Amino acid sequence: MFHIGYIRVPRSTWSVGRRFYSSEIQKKTIGFIGLGQMGYPMAQNLHKATKSTHRFIIYDNNAGATTKFTSSNSDTKAVSTPRDVAAESDIVFTMLPASAHVRAVYEGSDGVLEGVTPGVVCVDCSTIDVRTARDVAKNVEAKQAVMLDAPVSGGTPAAQNGTLTFMVGAPQSQFEGVKEFLQKMGKNVFYCGENGTGQAAKICNNMMLGICMVGASETFNLGLRLGLEPELLNKILNTSSGRSWSTDTYHLVPGLNPNVPASKDYEGGFGVSLMAKDLGLAVSAATEVKSSVMLGSAAEQMYKIIAGTEGYEKKDFSVVFRWLGGEKIGKGKGK
Questions:
Q1: Does the annotation count 202 as an active-site position?
Q2: Domains of the chain by residue range
Q3: What's the burial of 202, exposed, middle or buried (CB within 10 Å: 0-12/13-18/19+)?
Q4: Which of the following is catalytic: 202, 277, 290, 328?
Q5: I need a labelling partner for 11 at 20 to 30 A (CA). Which of 62, 107, 231, 234 fits?
């Protein structure tokens, strides 16, 4: 026998996936741990889409974040520890800054592993190293529970708009049962393979992202020094072979797009320290499998320096354009 929602049923009667969406079960419970810049809007979207069918409980070590969430979502419940979330939930989502935080939340005192029961599904949306993802998955499975790594791409705008891309590593038999929840927070959900492959896909994506942002910043820096107006150069790039997400969506030059961090003094968004962390994960993984990543290594070193530069520590990663001097050049119109 094991517990689902408010009733007890024989284990032989149910599959893990069925516990999520069978109409025979009354109220199921979703738990969400980690209400930071990404986690908060993700939790908001998930709660909004499931509040008629699920209970919703939250935890964050920042009491202000949980108070804010429960104040605007009165039907949610804040609890004191990750253990409490796991003990009351049928499915648990975590969105945390780094590998150390994931290990602490799952494996630490009053962590998820102390409260999780057989059949519960845990979905970690953090970006962490592949080894940690696989280690935590083994520990969750030892509790007869299920673990999926499902890191995301798209940044805070996509988290707010519910248009994230999820890259999922998990036993394929568990993927479909969780996909419907991920689709409430994103528009693209990819199955990548067994545990850890979601993280592998994510660090490859973010290495490309970091490299492209540096390349775009150097390009605009050069163009402005040669006398080109940023608006014109941006139009040319986006109708030519130099187009990238950094030029057509997440514009790095202030004023090209009023809705991105560059036009808000590089506040919000994806921090330089997080980009440095993700590039470090990619470089470490490349070292383990003996893959050459010269541009990835160069981008990592650049972002480490930026993250350690006074006034840049908490800025969005597109601030590399300012760090290179591009903003001053723009104000000087190429002189």
A1: yes
A2: 2-195, 201-331
A3: buried
A4: 202
A5: 107
- What's the whole-model pTM score? 0.83
CATH number assigned to the domain with residue range 201-331, chosen from the 4 options 3.10.20.880, 3.90.650.10, 1.20.1250.20, 1.10.1040.10: 1.10.1040.10
**Domain pair 2-195 / 201-331, same fold:** no
Q: CA-CA distance, 242 to 231, in Å (whole number)?
A: 15
Tens digit of each residue's pLDDT (9 = 90 or more) over 289-310: 999 999 999 999 999 999 999 9
Helix, strand, coil percentages for the chain (3-state, nearest 5)? 50, 15, 35
Place of tokens 């920042």: 62
**162's torsion region: left (phi>0), alpha (psi -120 to 50) or beta?**
left
- Cβ 170 vs Cβ 140: under 8 Å: no
CA nearest neighbour of 91 among 40, 146, 171, 164: 146
**Which pair of tokens denotes residue 215?**
């390349």
Q: DSSP class of residue 87?
A: H
CATH code at 2-195: 3.40.50.720
- pLDDT tens by residue, 318-327: 999 999 997 6
